[in-house]
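batch job 7 of whatever, protein = Transporter
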Amino acid sequence: MPKNTKVTQREHSNEPVTESVADLLSLEHPMDYKSSQMSMGLSPGSTAPGKSLLPEPDAEDGRPAWNNKLEYILAQVGFSVGLGNVWRFPYLCQKNGGGAYLVPYFILLLLIGIPLFFLELAVGQRIRRGSIGVWNYVYPRLGGIGVSSLMVCGFVGLYYNVIIGWSIFYFFKSFQYPLPWAECPIRINGTQAIVEPECEKSSATTYFWYRQALNTTSTIDDTGGLNWKMTLSLLVAWIMVCLAVIKGIQSSGKVMYFSSLFPYVVLFCFLVRGLMLKGAIDGIAHMFTPKLEKMLEPQVWREAATQVFFALGLGFGGVIAFSSYNKRDNNCHFDAALVSVINFVTSILATLVVFAVLETEEISNAEKILGFLNTGVLSKELIPPHINFSHLSAEDYTEMYGVIKTVKEDSFGQLGLDACLLEDELNKAVQGTGLAFIAFTEAMTHFPASPFWSVMFFFMLINLGLGSMIGTMTGITTPILDTFKIRKEILCVVCCILAFLMGLLFVQRSGNYFVTMFDDYSAGLPLTVVVILENVSVAWIYGTKRFMQDLEDMLGFRPYSFYYYMWRYVSPAILLVLIIATVIEMAVSPAGYNAWVESEGAESFHSYPPWALAMAYALIVAAMLPLPIVFIVRHFNLVSDGSNKLSVSYRKGMMKDISNLEEQDEQRFILGKNPSEAPSPMPAHRAYLGPGGTTEMTNTNYGTSTKTGYQNIGSPESEL
């Protein structure tokens, strides 16, 4: 025992020995008890007088911080607004009833989107750690949540950056006129010049995508070797990502000023340009024409919930990581609402652009028909008398197309006319590799100054993807930097090199099929499980009332009771239904991919071979395996639960409290008072009222519990 403590001094005196809490703490070795403030031996629902259950952040803990609020908001917007807003949301809107789809989407955004986004922002900002550290603090047995989140980030980052590489390839190919995908290539066969048969059977843009860009094989079994063009594009993409995140938020924050704002400039330009084209109004009218009967289909609600879930980036760890660099008193409630609304508005804006631009395809084909009429290729008698080419509607074109196809059945293929149904365009895009590289690319070939618009479009895709990749990489590097002492520059470079090497799987000639596999299996089910466990660990294990109290201490106001009921009941129930629906869909839907058949010039659905199916399910298992492993090893105390790694700020706060208690104890000793007679140095405990405002939460057994660690964390029954 240290010789200069008051306890030792009192052993040599005749005075009764009265040990203070500070003295008892001073005798302990620096074991930093438990990493979770939530496991301080308190009874469920109680707090230390005047103290929050979560570690107090400190400006001196050396953690980086955002330079300003705008950088942070742009980072969250850049992460949440990604490629899915441009090519996934418009397809779902068309498929699920047009304007009617917006109703379930908005309802589910309020029920699960904003509440869960707010929850992730709050825990990241309060605990100031990445995904692994946060959930180790909340409940060590569920520390696998952070590891699973990191695994999913890794899987998604591998193939997501390949898509950025594709955009880079198209970006550089756009600096020529005419665009290389505007017309089918001509093959010279002796003295004859014929159109490439594969292109003639499909279309110029489809041929360029599958043959010129990907040079894809016909099956996933045939790897075909590396595609050197896409390999170089992937290398450029990883170099860009590495440079953006190498200095952490100090470098990525600056990049976000451009990568988050530039896509909106391009979308507005495309919207204005699209509205100036004939047929654009028909496309927008098609979007806002609701098919109300679709709202009664469960599939519509399931797809809306899934889109809300992934649109905000829930469960990836990027949201928590970005928020962990905030100040303690930042209004994360406002941030959650703002970013969610921006994301929703962006999806609608992108859908307006897509519907306006794709509908103009009918006008381009109508001009072809008009040219055939003027040259005598087609008879004017084939055109119904009520059709006016100056004001051609979608219905008029469809009727005219059907008549010509029926009359000119033998020579119809030589006319080069397309049905140009918006549904077909969107379905064609989503079944392949996305709307960007097929339907929208073809539409841009009909624009005046088409190379300019193509450059703008693919530069927008690069920036959209880069913003999401910065958030994904931050979700990987932040928890690693919090856990291990390593320079962020070294970690970033190592991660990017390893990711590039593993990403070579996706730049083989069959790489597109692996992108589809990872997109279908690596993130969907694992992320949903991760988020429901996040919700349960905060709302039911830690306690919703305690969490609401922490939010009040942090924000300076108590959040609406709406969040209490969402976190505790509604969101977990919806997520559980979503998990069940996802499992059922995986069980009943055939596992396969759309392969490009060169001889037919079209896609054909192929089932995965056994090895590929095993690989697909291995992705799900690998992403979810940390959850049971961490739970088991910590339940049976097989490994340390991180109890010796409290944050610097928390240790400083503890030592400050000990110092204050020491001074108070010294005064009481000098005055000869017993501790029970001296006034408490701590401020009076503030009662907290639950969401109903009628039940007071009181501290009834503070300091009396003998349980330690996560064995004493509040149970769900404690709040019933």
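notes: The chain is about 60% helix and 5% strand.
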